[in-house]
């Protein structure tokens, strides 16, 4: 197997619907930023508890269970995206200043799914923070195990905190720490429950980030979710491995904050999440000195990076072989591999008797997500000694 292919991009009608969704979301975004549809304080506390309890109770899966999971390849693909982001943004630092000590905040770190990625990127210090206490303990334990196994490892700190409500700086051992990078993987959308929570999250992200430092991450793409949901009478969509249902009626408009939906993914996530209106995020981030420098749906991210990071795609098994090798079974039904079949039929059989791919069902979940990166610019002090950020005319990526 020498090559890979994935199911087709959104059809033109889907793209049009994404465009009209953008317009709808933009129209809402030009109104007031917070609104009376956002959940009240009691509901917000309830959500935080539900989210923390959900992640605290997620069991760690053994290797065999992970291998047999119907989202095995999609999870590996998600890890590929995270690895590429980490590699790209640590490389940017080293391209400018090779010997620099790299300090990182991994916000919404979970059980430390990115520990070994930080190790491979040879960073020097990582602060891990998450609302779910049990996950933070597991993250610390995994760090200690890794340290025993590999000897030299970055130094670390572990903080259990609601990053949308608490001030993280108050909890650092050294509150004067400056980060080169802040990473938020698959967790930022929880702060879009309310304007106040989005602000606190952005403040935590930006406060200790150095000028020229990057904040990057991954999150569900609201435009993608809304455009797919719009096609169904009950605002839900999915397939055999996932289901998303909007928990508000879009006929009444899209709330900018508190746009709640349920995301049910084979034992991985099943708690309320919130749509992130990216136009609003982009504007709000500027107030915290963060300018958007990169944004791509996962399908485009794959196109942008699969050439440079092809070996990594193969090493961490992001794709299965189609047709299945003798004695092995495909992850999905044969009908979920039409794209791979067509690809092979269109190629010279001598070069391509087998292709690396993902089932249509897994790809439909993978392409819900997007990757993004912001760059911090310098602020100035106002008369009250408060740092204010004014967007520079140009910013290099
Ligand atoms: C899908 S997991 C991602 C974990 C990790 N970043 C990864 O990529 O493996 C989302 C994480 O966000 C965390 N989270 C949700 N709301 C949070 C909040 N308000 N403050 C801090 N962490 C939060 C959850 O506890 C969970 O660990």
From TrEMBL:
Binding site for S-adenosyl-L-methionine: 82, 108, 130, 162, 185, 190
Annotated localization: Nucleus
Keywords of the record: Methyltransferase, mRNA capping, mRNA processing, Nucleus, RNA-binding, S-adenosyl-L-methionine, Transferase
Biased composition (Polar residues): 29-38
EC number per UniProt: 2.1.1.56
Residues in MRNA cap 0 methyltransferase domain copies: 69-377
Catalytic activities: a 5'-end (5'-triphosphoguanosine)-ribonucleoside in mRNA + S-adenosyl-L-methionine = a 5'-end (N(7)-methyl 5'-triphosphoguanosine)-ribonucleoside in mRNA + S-adenosyl-L-homocysteine
UniProt-listed SUPFAM superfamilies: S-adenosyl-L-methionine-dependent methyltransferases (SSF53335)
Binding, mRNA: 78-79
Region of interest (Disordered), residue spans: 1-48
Site (mRNA cap binding): 111, 117, 142, 189, 273, 369
Molecular function in Gene Ontology: mRNA 5'-cap (guanine-N7-)-methyltransferase activity; RNA binding
GO cellular component: nucleus
Biased composition (Basic and acidic residues): 39-48
Main location: nucleus
UniProt family annotation: Belongs to the class I-like SAM-binding methyltransferase superfamily. mRNA cap 0 methyltransferase family.
Protein name: mRNA cap guanine-N(7) methyltransferase
Organism, scientific name: Operophtera brumata
């Amino acid at each position: 197997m020498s090559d890979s292919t994935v199911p087709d991009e959104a059809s033109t009608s889907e793209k049009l619907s994404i465009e009209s969704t953008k317009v709808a979301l933009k129209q809402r975004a030009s109104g007031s930023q917070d609104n009376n549809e956002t959940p009240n304080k009691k509901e917000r506390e309830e959500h935080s508890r539900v989210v923390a309890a959900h992640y605290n109770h997620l069991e760690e899966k053994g290797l065999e269970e992970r291998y047999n999971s119907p989202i095995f390849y999609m999870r590996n693909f998600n890890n590929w995206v995270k690895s590429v982001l980490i590699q790209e943004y640590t490389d940017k630092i080293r391209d400018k200043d090779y010997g620099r000590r790299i300090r990182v905040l991994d916000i919404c770190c979970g059980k430390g799914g990115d520990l070994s990625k930080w190790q491979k990127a040879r960073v020097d210090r990582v602060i891990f923070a998450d609302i779910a206490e049990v996950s933070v303990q597991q993250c610390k334990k995994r760090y200690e195990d890794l340290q025993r196994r590999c000897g030299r490892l970055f130094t670390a700190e572990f903080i259990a905190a609601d990053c949308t409500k608490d001030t993280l700086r108050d909890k650092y051992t050294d509150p004067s720490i400056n980060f080169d990078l802040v990473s938020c993987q698959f967790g930022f959308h929880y702060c879009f429950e309310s304007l106040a929570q989005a602000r606190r999250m952005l403040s935590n992200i930006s406060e200790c980030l150095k000028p020229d430092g990057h904040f990057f991450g991954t999150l569900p793409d609201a435009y993608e979710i809304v455009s797919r949901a719009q096609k169904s009478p009950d605002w839900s969509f999915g397939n055999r491995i996932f289901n998303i249902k909007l928990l508000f009626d879009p006929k009444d408009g899209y709330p900018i904050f508190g746009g709640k939906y349920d995301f049910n993914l084979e034992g991985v996530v099943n708690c309320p999440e919130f749509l992130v209106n990216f136009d609003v995020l982009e504007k709000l981030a500027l107030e915290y000195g963060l300018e958007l420098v990169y944004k791509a749906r996962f399908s485009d991210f794959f196109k942008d990076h699969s050439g440079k990071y092809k070996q990594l795609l193969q090493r961490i098994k992001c794709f299965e072989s189609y047709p299945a090798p003798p004695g092995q079974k495909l992850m999905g039904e044969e009908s979920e591999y039409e794209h791979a079949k067509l690809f092979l039929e269109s190629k010279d059989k001598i070069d391509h008797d087998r292709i690396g791919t993902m089932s249509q069902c897994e790809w439909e979940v993978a392409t819900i997500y997007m990757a993004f990166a912001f760059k911090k610019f310098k602020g100035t002090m106002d008369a009250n000694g408060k740092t204010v950020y004014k967007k520079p005319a140009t910013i290099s990526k």
